[in-house]
Amino acid sequence: MAWRRRKRPLAVLADRYALYQAAVQNPELEVELFEQFYREAYGRRARPLTLREDFCGTAYLCATWAVSHPRRRAVGVDRDPEPLAWGEIHNLATAGPSVLRRVRLIQGDVRTVRTDPTHIVCALNFSYCALRRRRDLLDYFRNARAAVAARGLFVLDVLGGTATLDVAEDVRDIDGHPAIYIWEQTRFDVLSHHLEAHIHFEFLDGSKLERAFSYDWRLWTLPELTDLLQEAGFSEVRFYNEVFEEGDDPEYLSPTGEYRRVTEMENQESWVVYGVALP
Known about the structure:
Strand order of the largest sheet: 3-2-1-4-5-12-10-11
Shape: globular
CATH superfamily of the largest domain: Vaccinia Virus protein VP39
CATH topology of the largest domain: Rossmann fold
Largest sheet: 8 strands, mixed
CATH architecture of the largest domain: 3-Layer(aba) Sandwich
C-alpha cells in the first residue's frame, strides 16, 4: 500500500516577519510622507538624507529609505536581535551591497542609545506605546530630541478612535499571500489606557498562526504626546490626518494615501495620524 505524504499546514511553513511586513507596513508611503513633512517644515527644495528608525524591527523602512536615493543613509535601533537578524538577511542583503553599506543596525534601548543627529528620527507602528510609564516615554523623547538634526524632524504615528477603547477584532486579506490578517484587541483598561492585543494569521488551508505578535501597550492620547514632546525639548508639534473621499459606495469614504496637516479633528471609529515634532 502506497502512503501519501501529508502536506504540512501553511501556518507551519509561514514566515511571520514576511507576513507582518505585507500586512502592516507601507515603507514607500512613509518615505514619501517624510519628504512631504520635511518640505513643509524647511522649504520645497529641502531634502532629508539621513534617517534613524527606532523600534525598527526588521529594518524594512531603513532599507526602503536607502533604496530611495543613493545618498541616503539609515540607522535602525531595536532591542530584539531576532528581527534585526531577519531584516539584515531579507531586507538589507537582498537590496544589494550599496544599501548594506549605508544602513547600520544597532541592538539597543532607544531610551539610551546614542547616534549622530539625523534629518528624520521616527517611531512607527505605534511601537513607543510599549513604554507605558510617563517617565519612560519622556526619557525616550528626550533621547530622540538629541538625535534630531538642527534641521530635522521626529515622526511618530498615533492610533485612536472609539473602536480602540474596547475589545475588538479587525480582519482583512493580505495582498499576494494566501492568508488573512487578524488584529484582536483582547483587553482595554479605561483607567490606565492599557491595551492588550495580538496579531494572528489564518490560511486558506484552515491552519492558523495564533499570536504571531502580541502587544502590551498604553494608548497615549494626542494631548499627552504633545505635552511630552514639548517637555522633551521640541519647539512645535504638528499632526497630519489622512484625506478620505467618496468611493463607489456613497455610505463609505475611501482613503487616498494623502495626508494634510490638521489643527482640529472629529473623533471616528478608528484613526491613525502622524505626529511631527520640530526641534
